[in-house]
Amino acid sequence: MNNDKAFTPFQLKNFQLRNRLGVAPMTRMSSIRDSVPRQDVLDFLGARAQNGAAIVYTEAIVTDYESSQGYPGQARMTTQRQIDTWRTVNETIHAADALSIMQMFHCGRMAWPEVNPAGRSLAPSRISVKQLNPLTGQPYPLADEMSVFDIRHVINGFIETAKGAVAAGFDGIEIHGAHGYLISQFLSAYSNQRSDEYGGTPERRYRFAHEVIEAVRQVVPQDRLLIFRISDWGVADMEVSLFGARDEYQTIIRYLSGEPIDAISVSTYDYSLKAFGTDKNMAQLTREASHLPIFICGKIYDRASAEEALLDADIALSGKSTLLNPHWFEDVRTGKTMAAYTSEEANIAYTETPLP
Ligand SMILES: Cc1cc2nc3c(=O)[nH]c(=O)nc-3n(C[C@H](O)[C@H](O)[C@H](O)COP(=O)(O)O)c2cc1C
Known about the structure:
alpha/beta; TIM Barrel; two-stranded antiparallel sheet; 11 helices; 15% strand; globular; binds flavin mononucleotide
């Protein structure tokens, strides 16, 4: 196997990355006051840059104060205090020669209305997931079907949050279109059964994502990155394939590839799994349909898995391994034998126990 791509530099638009490895976005639910995360949670990001990451992602930042929050303790990026806090995180990441990316999300029907100051929950269609909310043991609320007014209003939240990220000095902004949250809900016929211009054909289901990208790009300067994260799975009803078939997935990837974005970030459970009944993995299927740089994530935990994942992608992101092993980047470099961490082990992310 090719064994030396992970530590070769990569030119991502105007940014020269020192290697091909990064910290995946990870929600920590630690914000108590003012939607600002705990200091140790912020320090974790700088520490991973110091430990060798080329790219460091924030947790999913919530886009508005009304309907976007899906978990307690999520962070926001629209007040001066929030922006100033994140600016110091960026300074640390930049001083360590890494790139910082702010991921932003709206939970859609995966809502926790009590934590949204306006108590609303919104979705493309009035359909609940089957699974109970694992944090409450209760069903998710039945969301209101978004009106066109709601759609415009929610897009404003993405715009304002992107402006906050630009002001805070992030190198890039990622629109979270994966994991069965709002944008993903519009993309998938599993959750989008609208009969207006936002539902029906893949092109119409894509319209909301297009409008978010178009609006956000206008406030993200050309010298900063705009990235879109996509997945075929959602955090609820995990067995469901959100795109259902290769053709539909690749159609959406082709639409995305015509947008003014700088990379597509593909999220999987396991990068190596073949998808949609084909003999290709998700990165390969994405590459077939796109000329854009591709990030891949999912069970990349050591040098061999990183190198194999990078055969079909440009950047490999790792979640649980970067969370639990502060020396992960160095351990990958030296080829140390390591095992993949379990989701149970990663639950430390949601406690007040400081990470190693
Ligand atoms: C504690 C935790 C929090 C996560 N939060 C987010 C998130 O906010 N946004 C997101 O896109 N993915 C999130 N993920 C998914 C990761 O980004 C990644 O896709 C997943 O962990 C699979 O990669 P891994 O096998 O390297 O852990 C989270 C994962 C973990 C373990």
